[in-house]
Amino acid sequence: MLEADNAQTAHAIALDRKPDLILLDWMMPGTSGIELARRLKREEATAEMPIILLTAKGEEDNKVQGLEAGADDYITKPFSPRELVARLKAVLRRATPPGIEEAVEVEGLRLDPSSHRVTSHGGALEIGPTEYRLLQFFMTHQERAYTRSQLLDQVWGGNVYVEERTVDVHIRRLRKSLGDGHQHLIQTVRGTGYRFSIRE
Amino acid sequence: MLEADNAQTAHAIALDRKPDLILLDWMMPGTSGIELARRLKREEATAEMPIILLTAKGEEDNKVQGLEAGADDYITKPFSPRELVARLKAVLRRATPPGIEEAVEVEGLRLDPSSHRVTSHGGALEIGPTEYRLLQFFMTHQERAYTRSQLLDQVWGGNVYVEERTVDVHIRRLRKSLGDGHQHLIQTVRGTGYRFSIRE
DNA sequence: GCGCGACTGTCATATCGCTGTCATATTTTC
DNA sequence: GAAAATATGACAGCGATATGACAGTCGCGC
User: Fold this and answer.
1) Which CATH number belongs to the domain containing residue A170 in this structure?
2) Which residues form the Response regulatory domain (chains A, B) (predicted)?
3) Which of B55, B60, B63, B67 should one mutate to test binding to chain A, selecting the residue with the greatest count of A CBs within 10 A?
């Protein structure tokens, strides 16, 4: 649960933390909610995030504008907690298409997002949160070299200030977790960064 | 590193020298920093330049105004050098989208920039960074002889002082990496330099 | 509210590969 | 055959990456 009381902050947080869903009030200080929605939908990093818009009763115009700006649903104030929850669920359900839930498997190494688990030939692997995300990114973007910068953006999130060398450390932790059986998949590309590859 | 102590000069320099990033103090003589930011963002030539705003502690209003004026990030004084550097990096990272490049293939020899890899009929080849760049240059500039000087400029970069003979050594290393299957592609042009060619 | 363990980011240090240069061998040219 | 150009092998310095350790945070269970 994250909160922001103005559009700037909200924007920054959205980029930074990649929330599953955004609940947006039409009335916000600074940039209007609608403008924020538009912005979020425009940027690739945040375009996929579902947005629910809160509008005051009867403001039909707002609803239309909101939906046009890219909101996925709207709720009219006042609303019951029950209604809110129902809509949240509905939007989340729609927003979590099989794509993200699909497990990936390579040479006996399997990452299953639905159970949030990594297994090697059936046996569970010890793996930290960051390493999990790193591995997930790699397994869904194989055979491609990424710089430390790009990995920071993709795995850590956009507005995060971390030393590039930190990536090295997590790569090492990931390799350690993968063990001898699979660590050859995580390859160093000297002078560039790292790569996940089946070959070689 | 360029400096200006007022908005006019800064504006001029920005236009003139096209810096990668602008660090802007909120407090400036003449036009305020915020006004300058707005101006820079309005003009096409300077709109893409990332701007980081320096604001005094606690002036929340300034931050909001700054971001609305188009600043990409802000730092509150006082700040640590570490933080400054981190933010600079992060902003630059976001501002420099990676170029998209096509793979090149010749007679089963394939160089793929996205995976940063060289393969011979599917099998990965061992190749160092410099040899990789050298090969990339050659494959994108085939059938043409280059002097050692030109290669140094193109592959090593303009302002490097390196012996011309060094090129010979890297040519050799490249040939070695390519192995018997492909080294005939790298040809010596006696008295001139080298050439990448399919023909004899 | 507190203590504990897990996780993160950073640093210092160890390693390893890459680089440029040289001395020497080989090839080409005339 | 001599001179010039290029190829080759060796090497030491340097820079990038790997590793191990550490302190700060955070969430959780008590």
Assistant:
1) 1.10.10.10
2) 1-92
3) B67
A198 touches strand C (CB under 7 A): no
Distance to chain B for A9, nearest Cα, Å = 9
Chain A residues whose CB is inside 8 A of the B128 CB are 190
Instruction: Kindly report the nearest CA distance between residue B114 and chain A, in angstroms.
Output: 5
Residue B87 contacts A, CB cutoff 8 Å: yes
Per DSSP, the residues of B99-114 read PP---EEETTEEEETT
CB contacts, 8 Å: A184 with chain B: none
B146-160 confidence digits (pLDDT tens) = 999 899 989 998 778
Q: What CATH number does the domain containing A72 carry?
A: 3.40.50.2300
Question: A59 vs chain B: nearest CA distance in angstroms?
Answer: 27
Are A62 and A41 members of one domain?
Answer: yes
A30-73 tens-digit pLDDT: 566 667 777 777 666 667 777 777 776 555 565 566 666 667 77
10 Å CB burial of residue A192 (0-12, 13-18, 19+) is middle
Of A96, A125, A146, the last residue of a domain is A96
Encode A51-101 in three state secondary structure.
EEEEEECCCHHHHHHHHHHCCCEEEEECCCHHHHHHHHHHHHHHHCCHHHH
pLDDT one digit per residue (tens) for chain A, 200 residues: 666 666 666 776 666 666 777 777 766 655 666 677 777 776 666 677 777 777 765 555 655 666 666 677 777 666 666 666 666 766 666 665 544 567 888 898 998 887 888 888 888 888 888 999 999 999 988 889 999 988 988 888 766 788 889 999 999 999 998 888 898 999 999 999 999 999 87
